[in-house]
């Protein structure tokens, strides 16, 4: 059917999305509703009326219940489930008229979607955006027969599962979607839902699935050709190649082998013969005959079995016998020397491998890069969006065009021509021009072969640092950068962003630079994998084992000065934590004038896990926060108990929302849904605080319980020891925490102490513990295994 040409008259500007509706409460629909609730958006969740169900809304209520129990958690805070109203498509359909955005996530059948849209058109308000979450049915086919106004407000919104954690949201306009609708929805998805937005063309598979599924199919075929096994291929296509730990076959198991097969077969029908989505015979047998569908059936390419003592073992499917085998951990000698190299160096060296492993990687990479280049201008009109789709949808470090830049595009062209590939148009234009990179000097090549300027929509530190004038101070473990508008940024960049000597020194250098160079204030943040996993334990252990306790003492004093400088400086300091923000990283945030946190924040004071206590003011800060929260004259024990439980159990938040409930964030602190915008949001907060900023002074009026508090905690610890909940050494550490939280053993219960007094108690306890054998054993065990030792 021929599509109607769009009218020159634009639709009404969409209203800000304040209420949403999700139609379909299956795995995907319920998870989308949960993400909307995470963003604070009241959401209506509708599904069919189940036959013979006592509750006519049982389907939607069941979907919500599954989302509440999902692992990994769909909700950042389960209390936000209250924002979701459940209902059914018969009794509650008229409620859709209140929604600013309506998205469907129903069965993947074109007729069902068309019927639904006919009903939606009759009730949706004229400013509502209408979307489908379909992963394969073209958007323009779904809206045939609908009115022009409806068609111009319709745009595809393809989330990746699970929506909370996978950053990608493919936005798929049709030829009739109004530009203002695209922009309004792009902004909503980016800022409010926290997604990385890719504009996809309305073609089969869109961007990520079209290229990603092709890569999975080709990996299976190359594995069959080279005689390798799934576990070996997953080593070759996992982190070593800058891709997710689930690599190829674990990813396929998680996605569902039936889904992979279905998508590949559908793409085979609608794509040119040279694209070749033909599935290998072993996958057809697994899906159609043996029903080995992956995680959903408990067995696919891998199968998890529990042995003696409940320990799990991962078995690998033998594709010749279809029996599962315990093959142990795969080790490829040729890769051992590559793991610690930067990704760009690894990629080149992996392509130089010999034997069947080399044949596999080279064949797969040829197919993958050729196909990605062929899809430029087909699946998207932006190679930046294609790169981002693969990175955000599959958790890869590099997209295909970035990989070609690493290898040299002219080398890739030669590589493909040598094996008889017909060059896609974009590579033909490269061959003619002699250009060797897609991304070059703030320009990017477009699929049509023209050069376009390119600037990321948010601050990218690695791009900023290309201008040497932006680097104000630098050491191997930390740097100070000028991020514009009179704001400096302190960036940690050691391994796991551990807070060692470089980081501490650069804290002081950053504050000094703000004052001497006339900046408005400071942001503390970075764009690594995590904000900071805490102190440099290896250094502490080495000093302790060598008996360098004077150096440890000086180090603690310096670190306390660094953490407290986040608040007690002449300018505003905003800390922007994300991911793992543990121990000392948490203490940095606790002392900030303001915290601009990523929604995905896993923060806590975890020092007891290595036999220590929070020594950078964390213990002091939790006590101060919780006592300040008590009504005047109330018993302090609830505050002491609350702080003790957080520190003594090494509690870590599962989101920024939970961090606020636990007390690691204040009500005045802010949360950014999109981590890519975190530094920009923090910078804006500095500029907001700077004009009226007054430097705080340390408190001297913190009420403490003294010996009474120590005695109460001591009794509780004794009961836990007798009950086998803690070890004797845990009890010893607990008593030290209790002493700090109570202001010391020799302080009366009516006393008030200073922040410095509590910092001194922290320092003394930390120093004492580093000298104890069991603490050193715990640190050594953590460094070796990554797990705590309870000795």
UniProtKB/TrEMBL annotation:
InterPro entries: 3-OHacyl-CoA_DH_NAD-bd, 3HC_DH_C, 6-PGluconate_DH-like_C_sf, ClpP/crotonase-like_dom_sf, Enoyl-CoA_hydra/iso, NAD(P)-bd_dom_sf
CDD domains per record: crotonase-like
Chain ranges of the 3-hydroxyacyl-CoA dehydrogenase NAD binding domain: 19-202
Coiled-coil features, chain-numbered ranges: none
Molecular function via GO: (3S)-3-hydroxyacyl-CoA dehydrogenase (NAD+) activity; NAD+ binding
Domain 3-hydroxyacyl-CoA dehydrogenase C-terminal: 205-303
Pathway: Lipid metabolism; fatty acid beta-oxidation
Gene3D superfamilies recorded: 1.10.1040.50, 2-enoyl-CoA Hydratase, Chain A, domain 1 (3.90.226.10), NAD(P)-binding Rossmann-like Domain (3.40.50.720)
Keyword terms of this UniProt record: Fatty acid metabolism, Lipid degradation, Lipid metabolism, NAD, Oxidoreductase
Catalysis performed (reactions): a (3S)-3-hydroxyacyl-CoA + NAD(+) = a 3-oxoacyl-CoA + NADH + H(+)
Example GO biological process: fatty acid beta-oxidation
PANTHER family: 3-HYDROXYACYL-COA DEHYDROGENASE FAMILY PROTEIN, 3-HYDROXYACYL-COA DEHYDROGENASE-RELATED
Protein name: 3-hydroxyacyl-CoA dehydrogenase
Organism name: Deinococcus yavapaiensis KR-236
